[in-house]
Design a protein that fits this description.
With 246 residues, the chain is an all-alpha fold. It has 12 helices and no strands. Helix 1 packs antiparallel against helix 6, helix 4 runs antiparallel to helix 5 and helix 5 runs antiparallel to helix 6. 31% of the residues are buried. It is a multi-pass membrane protein. Its main location: plastid. GO terms for molecular function: transferase activity, transferring alkyl or aryl (other than methyl) groups.
Length: 246
Amino acid sequence: MAIENLSDVSLPFLFGLMKAISAFSCLIVYTNGVNQLFDMEIDKVNKPYLPLVSGEMSLQMGVAIVCASALMGLIIPYVIGSVPLLWGAFAHLFIFSAYSIELPLLRWKKSAIGAAFSISVGYAVVLQLATYLHMQTFVLGRQAKLSRTLGFGVLIMSTFYAVVALFKDIPDIEGDRKHGINSLATRLGKEKMLSHVSLASILWTKAKATDLEKNDEITAFYMLIWKHKENQVSHVFWDLSCSIKA
């Protein structure tokens, strides 16, 4: 974290934080908007209640909102003069444009690996690092210092968003499969995906309860993983390898 002691929390600090939040809020609107623009045919199947496909919002209005959000996401860091925030904004725009836009070498969401990479890097790495460096160097005027705490936070959030990316498409299998989105959910199906979620929950609960000072408990935890190796865990890695080849 950029905060090293309570005296860091001041009015300029809060204003600096609000500027970062404002910039990335615009970029998140862009992210969701551009995804809906290029997913209209899919959303007619998966999410017909969304404003563009339901007719509640016109296509022209959607394009205008997306363009304005992207522009504001860049203007805010440029006007305030924060280099970390500006580079973070450019990186965020690039990643999520590549995630959604249907062009050669883009539309990364078609691949389970591409989707996981885009979401975890865009939100867990770019957003966190840009905000941290903005607060550390631009707002507090300190040298950039990448701490273990920051690294741990990025690692945890990267893992979280990667899992979200892999499992978020369970309700969208029908439309994704119809339009060539090779998500993990379309490859495995709902039942297998839910079984993997259950397995992950079991392993997480067991891991928290395992006493690392007791070899018998460590062995029991290892055997639990091994027990599910052939019938569940291996399927995940097989599907991910297929996604890479695809």
